[in-house]
């Protein structure tokens, strides 16, 4: 009886070929009379070596023919003999799926230009999945997923029906962390050489937020956390939020975010933003690894808007956290910063408004007091002035009256003198001085001899009476 080394997954195939199960030894064996060549891949190494020598010797004399299964079994034996022990293999996970508790992985390798160089399927048995995933998660902060590089301890097996496969017994998480760190270091080195790594950090942090651009995955949990406070600010017109949707995982993530970034910058030229927010909730390390991209990092460094990044949870970190103007652990902390600044400014403005009102009221009261005081002073001054003017007017009036009286007395004296003078010059007084007044008929005064010659009868008036004179022509 020849016992076989049959893996658990291949027991059905061994049974189909005629192998039997030995309950005592807990191993499969070849019954007597059954062709050994059907079981070459499961035969013990010493038996295979003897059989191989016999086959070589026979080949020297006759042509050897194999059935497909026997030939593939032979290939399997050669692989098993060449790689009897597990080996550490570095590769990238391109696909990963679970089936009935087992983990099926596709490992790939690319050259520096991104060309595919190798591909192989790999498996982790259900009994090992939890332990390996736990170890990797504890070491890297993420579960195994597509898109990350790993260093696996794998055994190679070849199955006639299922082909070549690697069976993973262990994964070294430090290799994955080292690969990611190397990628970050390379991006950091390029941005430093271009002298742009701190360019966005040099933009002055906003003192207030009135208009903010937001880039996030559509319907993401992190966006929901962000919107809980953002909607309150928008509701009361304290801050406007403009949303741009982008993919944040997979190969398309960097280009999608760059496209959204470009749209926001274009809008910024027409109607400026105070800040540009990039947010998404936490995720697997492999998901966040897509954000460690040189093109995306350069676009953020050169962004003319102050960038605020809130990607993942507190333990998550990407190159975006390093180059953005401000870095936050979660989307909730980003909006909390904005909400705090806006509300603090609103409260400060309200307090300032109230203080201005109080100061205006104080100024009003003080002004009213000053005006009343001025009015009283003006009234008092005016009354004093009016009193002085009245006194001056009264004094002046008294002076005028006194002067007028004096003038009247003087005029009266002068009038008396004039009257006396006039009276002294009256006809009666003149007649008393020896003068006479000559009248013609009709009491016409005759003041010249020529005028007197024209009348015959004249009246000569003296101071004490009048005489009638008849004038005769000398010829008569």
Give a concise summary.
The chain is built from 13 helices and 17 strands. By secondary structure, the chain is of the alpha/beta class.
Please give the count of helices: 13
Task: Tell me what portion of residues adopts beta-strand conformation.
Answer: 15-25%
* Distance N to C terminus: 227 Å
Helix content: 40-55%
The tally of beta strands, per DSSP, is: 17
Which descriptor suits the 3D outline? rod-shaped
Largest sheet: 5 strands, mixed, barrel
Question: What is the ordering of alpha helices and beta strands?
Answer: EHEEHHEEEHEEHEHEHEHHEHEHHEEHEE
CATH superfamily of the largest domain: Response regulator
Structural category is alpha/beta
Rg over alpha carbons: 65 Å
What does this structure look like?
The chain has 476 residues and is of the alpha/beta class. It folds into 4 domains: 2-81, no CATH class; 87-171, Beta Barrel (OB fold (Dihydrolipoamide Acetyltransferase, E2P)), CATH 2.40.50.140; 195-409, Rossmann fold (3-Layer(aba) Sandwich), CATH 3.40.50.2300; 429-470, no CATH class. It has helices at 11-16, 45-59, 68-82, 126-140, 173-193, 221-235, 253-270, 285-289, 294-301, 319-323, 331-424, 427-432, 449-452, and strands spanning 2-4, 20-22, 27-30, 87-99, 102-110, 116-124, 149-159, 163-171, 211-216, 240-245, 275-280, 307-311, 326-328, 437-440, 444-445, 457-462, 465-470. The strands form 4 sheets. Strands 4-5-6-8-7 form a 5-stranded mixed barrel. A 5-stranded parallel beta sheet has the order 10-9-11-12-13. The protein has a 4-stranded antiparallel beta sheet with strand order 15-14-16-17. β16 and β17 (465-470) form a beta hairpin. α4 packs parallel to α5 (173-193), α6 (221-235) packs parallel to α11 (331-424) and α7 packs parallel to α9 (294-301). The longest helix has 94 residues, at 331-424. The protein starts with a strand and ends in a 6-residue tail after the last strand.
């Amino acid at each position: 009886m020849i016992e076989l080394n049959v893996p658990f997954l291949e027991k059905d195939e061994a049974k189909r070929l005629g192998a039997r199960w030995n309950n005592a030894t807990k191993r499969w064996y070849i019954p007597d009379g059954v062709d050994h060549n059907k079981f070459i891949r499961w035969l013990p190494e010493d038996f295979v070596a003897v059989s191989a020598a016999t086959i070589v010797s026979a080949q020297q004399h006759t042509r050897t023919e194999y059935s497909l299964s026997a030939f593939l079994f032979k290939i399997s034996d050669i692989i098993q003999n060449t790689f009897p022990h597990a080996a550490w293999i570095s590769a990238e996970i391109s696909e990963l799926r679970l089936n009935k508790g087992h983990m099926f992985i596709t490992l790939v390798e690319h050259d520096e230009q991104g060309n595919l160089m190798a591909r192989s399927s790999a498996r982790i048995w259900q009994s090992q999945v939890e332990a390996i995933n736990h170890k990797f998660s504890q070491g890297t902060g993420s579960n195994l997923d597509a898109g990350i590089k790993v260093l696996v301890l794998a055994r190679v097996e070849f199955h006639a029906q299922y082909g070549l496969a690697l069976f993973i017994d262990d994964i070294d998480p430090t290799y994955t962390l080292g690969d990611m760190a190397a990628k970050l270091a390379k991006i950091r080195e390029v941005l430093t050489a271009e002298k742009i790594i701190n360019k966005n950090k040099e933009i002055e942090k906003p003192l207030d937020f009135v208009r903010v651009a937001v880039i996030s995955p559509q319907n993401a949990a992190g966006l929901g956390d962000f919107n809980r406070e953002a909607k309150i600010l928008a509701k009361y017109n304290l801050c406007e939020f403009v949303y741009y949707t982008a993919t944040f995982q997979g190969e398309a993530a960097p280009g999608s975010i760059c496209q959204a970034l470009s749209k926001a910058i274009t809008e910024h030229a027409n109607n400026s933003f105070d800040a540009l927010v990039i947010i998404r909730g936490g995720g697997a390390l492999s998901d966040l690894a897509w954000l460690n991209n040189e093109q995306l990092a350069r676009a953020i460094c050169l962004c003319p808007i102050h960038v605020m990044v809130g990607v993942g949870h507190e333990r998550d970190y990407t190159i975006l956290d390093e180059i953005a103007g401000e870095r936050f652990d979660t989307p909730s902390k980003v909006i909390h910063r904005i909400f705090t600044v806006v509300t603090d400014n609103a409260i400060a403005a309200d307090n300032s408004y109230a203080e201005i009102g109080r100061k205006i009221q104080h100024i009003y009261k003080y002004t009213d007091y000053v005006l009343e005081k001025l009015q009283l002073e003006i009234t008092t001054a005016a009354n004093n002035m009016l009193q002085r003017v009245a006194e001056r007017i009264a004094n002046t009036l008294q002076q005028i009256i006194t002067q007028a009286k004096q003038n009247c007395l003087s005029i009266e004296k002068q009038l008396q003198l004039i009257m006396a003078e006039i009276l002294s010059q009256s006809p009666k007084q003149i007649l008393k001085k020896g003068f006479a007044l000559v009248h013609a008929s009709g009491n016409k005064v005759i003041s010249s001899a020529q005028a007197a010659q024209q009348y015959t009868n004249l009246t000569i008036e003296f101071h004490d009476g009048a005489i009638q004179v008849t004038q005769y022509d000398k010829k008569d």
